[in-house]
Amino acid sequence: MTAERHAGGTVTAERAAPASPGNGSPASGAPSAPPRTPDPDFVRPGARVAAVTAGVEDPRPVLAALLPEAKVGHADIDELSANPPAVAEPYAVALVARTPTDLRRLVSVGEMLPAADRIMVAILETPSWLDTPQVTLARGMGQRRLREMRVVRLGATGWLITTRFNRELGAGEVAAGVARGMTGHHLNAYPLPAFGLGDAALADWRAGDPDTTCGSAPERSGVPSCDLGLRLPGAPWDDDRVPTVERPPWRRGLWTEIGAPGGYGTFDETVLAPCHVPPVDERSVNPRGFLRVPTQGMGEVVARDGRWTVRLDGADVLRFPESGLVTDADVDRLRKLRGLRLTWSPGHTGPITAARVVAGLAAAGIPLVAERPAPAWALATLGEELTSLIPEDPADLDDELRREEVSVRLRRHALRTHGTTARWTALAREMGLAVPPEPTVSVVLCTRRTGLLGFALRQIARQRGVRLEVVLALHGIAAGDPAVSAALTDVDLPITVIEIDADVPFGAALNTAVARCSGTYVTKWDDDDWYGPDHLSDLLLARLYTGADLVGAASEFFYLEQINVTIRRRWPSETMADHVAGGTFLMSRETFAALGGFRPIPRAVDVELFQKLLRAGGCLYRTHGLGFVARRSARGKHTWQEPVGYFLHRAKDQWQGFRPSRLLEHEPEHEQPVE
Where is the Glycosyltransferase 2-like domain positioned along the sequence (predicted)? Predict the structure, then answer.
């Protein structure tokens, strides 16, 4: 056990006996015996506790184990609006979520959660990559009221957080603090417009956003509570200044509901289009934790007993909830599989819930195959482009590189089409609301080699899906050099050209270039390496779903020019890390300025910056490296100088000639960089 002083109180970390997830499905393991009370002093015997659960199908044994002697009033998140916990002036509040994804659903209805001076958050199952939760309460609100916090391991993979405050606090703030500490995002913020939910049953549509309002009443000041509201079909919205969109709860999209007496009318509300599918919470369900080398075979997604179920070798591995929600813990259970075979079973629960399963798996980068064409409902709800990216032949997943390429293509499209940010941006545009512009990226290219300038600029010019500018630092080269003029006229890019004396250290030259940048983000570009056309958009996507202070690609592919060999190294990707490929990193200009920029040294500037960020409390995320190939020629021509043997010794794969991933989209007739 360890303890430290925190906000005037005590923070304790320890281990408790396991609690049952309570749904009795193979996805969550068999129910275990009730544990000893993890925090016996949290509530006194007979105390009234208001409990709200999310994702826990049978909460009774779980609540009995966590609060054995309390009088508990319970509500599930889907029924919270109609039937809140019937507990007046509760002594404590307990929030119980099956997974972190489920906890984030509670965050979006934080306004509706009860308040008390003792608040418990229990998460029954977490993914293997999740570290100890860091509970980050708002300093001007809950943090200053905190008197004690205890973070306790709950079973094999769960966590229990108990808090005590000097006065009553809304449980939604604690839920938001726990959820925020489970991501790399320093703020639980989403782009405008501001959104509101008319009912807690719609929480899946805006998971993880504590700024989401619940209900349609205006603020006390008289201003609208939100800019765009989401309500149940036919439900009133009190403020007619707010445009609203109707969406049914997930149960109305089930075949059992549609086929029930009087239920056919609900089918009209369940329009078969991507914008009617509840979005994937990309800050929770994403490629993080992807395993390049699977240890298990192909699984199959089938409909069993009204649910989508993953089976492997004749046994159930995972049963998804009826709603079709895919959680981070579910994804973690599937990482070891080579892939999943979709059957497009006609016995699925309904088109919307079925589409949620497929979209969630694709967004997480689970490799999928489907041996027959997608049916009409799948084409309509998922979109033809996403379904076209699912290969038909399971052999496409036999090779590890090809398998990862399938994963990257699926995750790219699913996150950009079915993610929360993408879905609400589309809804806002549909309603004629202004949305923030896409962030801009400043590409810093510092070179001493005029012979490589044209090649490098053409690599930048083929970037797609991103707004960019180039700051070209000519390090010891005159701007009037004919080779420079020729390279600049060959591309249509917004370019700022600066001259830097040859004797200025590399790090100082880069700082001079960054000072001329105007983009939201800044990225470093090497003049002799290859970049795929989605390189920058992939980095922005990784920044979106991780919130990391710095993102970059893995240093996987190297072309060893001296011996005409391409190698691939064994670096894991889609993980928090301590370094990325130096020619690929992207970070906000604000973070770069806070760190003071690069050290004014001739080499190793990237590593020094990474270490400074980590020591300052920041985080780095390493995404896939399939869209980047580093060139290594003779020693003395690079700031990173290692002999050929260094790379060959660390190679997992090697090929004769130039052999990048298909995601680089390099054609044989394309140019090679020539100094």
Answer: 451-564
Listed residue (266, 270, 246, 281) closest to 377, CA to CA: 270
472 beta partners: 445, 497
- Which tops the pLDDT comparison, 99 or 190? 99
| Shared domain check, 542 and 511 | yes
Q: Are residues 51 and 139 in the same domain?
A: yes
pLDDT by residue (tens digit) across 204-230?
Answer: 999 999 999 998 777 777 889 999 999
pLDDT, tens only, 443-502: 999 999 999 999 999 999 999 999 999 999 999 999 999 999 999 999 999 999 999 999
Q: How far apart are CA 66 and CA 157, in angstroms?
A: 16
DSSP, residue by residue, 557-591 = EEEETTTTEEEEE----SEEES---TTT-EEEHHH
Would you say residue 675 lies in a domain? no
Cα–Cα distance for residue pair 498/473, rounded to 1 Å:
5
Same domain, 281 and 270: no
Place of tokens 């064409």: 373
Residue 46 exposed, middle or buried by CB count within 10 Å (0-12, 13-18, 19+): exposed
- pLDDT (tens digit per residue) in 228-268: 999 999 999 999 999 999 999 877 666 556 555 555 455 55
**What domain range is 140 assigned to?**
2-185
3-class state of residue 514 by DSSP: helix
User: 151 and 19 share a domain?
Assistant: yes
Is residue 193 one of the residues assigned to a domain?
no
pLDDT at 1 over 50: no
Which stretches of 508-650 are assigned E, i.e. beta strand? 521-525, 530-531, 550-553, 557-560, 565-569, 575-577, 586-588, 620-623, 628-632
The residue length of the chain stands at: 675
- 363 and 388 in one domain? yes
Token couple for 378: 């799948």
Question: How many Cβ atoms from other residues are within 10 Å of residue 294's Cβ?
Answer: 17
Smallest CA-to-CA distance from 510 within 611, 577, 587 is with: 587
* Same domain assignment for residues 170 and 260: no
Tokens representing residue 104 in the block: 């984030």
Q: Does residue 301 have a pLDDT over 60?
A: yes
Per-residue pLDDT band at 11 (split at 50, 70, 90):
very low
pLDDT band at 140 (very low <50, low <70, confident <90, very high): confident
Query: Cα 182 to the chain's mean position, in Å?
Result: 11
Contact yes or no for 578/606 (Cβ under 8 A):
no
Name the domain count of the chain: 4
Residues 6+ apart with CB under 8 A from 384: none
**Both 526 and 630 in a single domain?**
yes
Q: Which of 274, 306, 334 is the last residue of a domain?
A: 274
Distance CA 322, CA 102 (A): 14
Of 218, 246, 274, the last residue of a domain is 274
What one-character DSSP code corresponds to residue 265? Answer: G
Task: Tell me which amino acid residue 673 is.
Answer: P
Determine, yes or no, domain membership for 243.
yes
Whole-model pTM: value is 0.92
On whether residue 190 sits in a domain, the answer given is no
Rounded distance, CA 281 to CA 418, Å?
9
What contacts 24+ positions apart, CB below 8 Å, involve 31-40? 31/61, 32/155, 34/61, 34/64, 34/65, 34/68, 35/65, 35/154, 35/155, 37/66, 37/68, 38/66, 38/152, 38/154, 38/160, 38/162, 39/120, 39/150, 39/152, 39/160, 39/162
Identify whether residues 567 and 615 lie together within a single domain.
yes
Q: Where are the beta strands (DSSP E) in 305-459?
A: 307-312, 315-319, 337-342, 368-370, 440-447
CATH number, position 584: 3.90.550.10
Give 530's Cβ-side CA count (13 Å radius): 28
